[in-house]
Amino acid sequence: MRDKLNKLSLLLPEGCVASVPWLRTQGYSTQLVQRYHKSGRLVQLGRSAYHRLGRLPQWQDVVISLNKCWNMVIHVGAVAALELHGLGHYVRLGDNPRVYVFIHGPKAMPQWVRILSTGAVLVHAKATLFSPPDDMKGLADVEWPRSPWPLRVATPERAILEMLDLVPGQESFEHALLVAGGLMTLRPDVLMSLLHSCSSVKVKRLFLYLADRLALPCFQHLDASQIDLGKGTRQIVKNGKYDSKYRITVPGKLP
User: Fold this and answer.
1) Where are the chain's structural domains?
2) What is the mean pLDDT of residues 219-244?
3) Residue 93 confidence (pLDDT)
4) Which residues lie closer than 8 Å to 151 by C-beta, 6 or more apart?
5) What DSSP string runs through 139-182?
6) Whole-prediction pTM value?
7) Which residues pair with 104 in a beta bridge?
């Protein structure tokens, strides 16, 4: 029993949340899990979810746990991903931030995620901006100092496209303009691949508009003729100014 308990401390990092089925595959029966719970060595979160006694899970632990222990595919995207890559100018998350996480596939968030206080408001959405087999493009595993397991995060190139997908409903045009203005190291080859696979005409046109207006270094290396920009006009903001080059409406007064 002592060996099993010591092994559990190695198998399950502090802060991570495991499902009972995952623990069972690691050699811990339901009865043994319940025994550890009664003795205080495991803390239960809702139904069939446990973490080791110690620090409380943070939002990063939630994303890591869902990928590792819950048979889900999920990643941090949009503004939070840019912050994690160190591109935090104008996008500081602050206290209790809204963190967008994108779910791949039909699975929904487990109930325990909704009842857990993680230091952030996790806003989860389906990852629909890219369709299979391209839905995993532009994702990377990055180190998070509080866990030996990596955190799956959108690359900066994918993250800015995800942010633009939230304009104007969840993100303002003005905020997107400020954030995009600080992205001086976007990789043109990665962007071309993502723009070619992106399913949103609005996002593709809006990115090209911003990259052109801001004279981002990547823009001169992008070939818009190879990107499907659709037909017709896309209204980004109501009662805005029409940009004939990219056929979108933008705010009349911009910084």
Assistant:
1) 1-56, 169-250
2) 93
3) 54
4) 60, 63, 64, 76, 84, 141, 142, 143, 144
5) EEEEEETTEEEEEEEE-HHHHHHHHHHTTTTTS-HHHHHHHHTT
6) 0.92
7) 73
Which range is least confidently modeled, 51-60, 72-81, 82-91, 162-171?
A: 82-91
Q: CA 208 to CA 216: how far, in whole Å?
A: 10
Q: Please, which residues have CB within 8 angstroms of residue 244's CB and are 6 or more apart in sequence?
A: none
Per the CB < 8 A criterion, the answer to whether 197 and 137 are in contact is yes
Q: b/e for 202-219, b at 16 or more Cβ within 10 A?
A: bbbbbbbbbbbbeebebb
**How do residues 149-186 score in pLDDT, each as one tens digit?**
999 999 999 999 999 999 999 999 999 999 999 999 99
For 142, the token pair is 């990055």
In this prediction, residues 92-119 reach a mean pLDDT of 84
Which tokens go with 253?
Answer: 């007064």
- Using the structure block, give the residue that is written with the tokens 């270094």: 217
Alpha carbon distances (Å) from 216 to 19, 20, 150, 195: 45, 48, 30, 16
Q: Which of 185, 149, 176 is nearest to 78 (CA)?
A: 176
